[in-house]
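Q: I have 453 residues here and want to know how they pack in 3D. Can you give me a structure?
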Amino acid sequence: MEKLIKNALKLVKADYAEIRIQEGVSTSISYVGKELESIGENNALGGCVRALVKGGWGFVAFNDIENLPRYVEMACEQARFVGSEVSRLAPVSVIYDHTKTKVDVDPADVPLTDKEAICNKYNRIILSSPQIQTSNVRYVDSHGTVYFANTEGSFITQETIFCGISLLAMARDGMNVQQAYHSVGDLRGFRNVQNLEHETEIVTKRAIDQLAATPVKGGKYTVIIDPKLCGVFVHEAFGHLSEADFIYENANLRDIMVIGKRFGSDALSIVDDGTLVGEAGYNKYDSEGTPTQKTSLIKNGILTNRLHSRETAAKMNEKPTGNARAISYGHGPIVRMTNTYMEPRDYTFEKMLSEVDNGIYAIGALGGQTNMEMFTFSAEEAFMIRNGKLQEKVRDVVLTGNVFETLMNIDAIGSDLSIHGGLGGCGKGGQSPLRVSDGGPHVRIKNVVIGGR
């Protein structure tokens, strides 16, 4: 493979070019209700060439690596058609390396029948209650090797093993339909998905309990969010605003996201860290061969950095951060998050709770959307807080607001940092789901607008 790639790069007629070739095998199993909807293994092999000429990119994806020299010529030809400026890439070191994920139990060593048996067991637990209308249990594992080389002399081989499962229970009482969800997924191995009977029972009970929850009364509340919802908020509402391609192309956002501007109290720090071994968003190198790193986006309340590819770093006269990621060989790298989280401080959850007279404790996220600095998230589960204590369960809790105002309204940050991966992932630019993790501690926020039915 190395000889094939290096020989092809000798044919490059461009300012810069890179080749990525990806091979791997994946397993997927899906139960919907009582039915085993799908089960199977899939092998994939393909690659891409990206060439840069006078600031213009050419990109060719392929499955037959034998014709790699021809694809190099095609990418260079495309780039010459569109290039009209100066090619600018931030400099990075030339790297020759081979990395491999270390796992507790390799999913490749587990028979497909055993994987199906685990899914079947969890599915039967969910369906054991008559109040459960349907279920969804989905298992995924993958072994992948990516070969990367560029005309600067780098040659990197990265082997990755991912494994995870998602559990969904949907309960129904007449027209009242409620659901609960749990997912795990990262680079730690097959033990991720074992011994989740208790978690499955909790998911089932949570869906059923939601049926009896009362709809929340809309208004402004002090809200405590749990680590999972904190992670979703950090990723969706702030993380995407920190991606430099988005900032560079949007004049209004450039005026807002000014380095050195205050976005919260001294206690607020948000980071993106691609070096966290084992987490879903871990890579030693991004899809451009740039080493990943820990990047402080907000440090002690001040905006300090943004996430970059080599191209955006050069355009904005900043340093690359190792955040150029492609979901597969069929796509070019774009600026993406890795493992994004809010750093913990010293508040305990008990103290945070005791200081709230009238508020809401929001747990998890069923979904949401963002539009520039505005966000809307639906909590998976929620409880009223009165006089410093958790009270009745409420549902239909939708958090809305302006991300910058919300960051300023954070008045307590917990000590209980938790980072989550899963089978979901991030979507951007038609590339989804990209494996990422996000998280944080419990966080208390003043004056959050809560919409209910």
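Q: Anything worth noting?
A: The chain has a mean pLDDT of 96. The longest strand covers residues 35-53.
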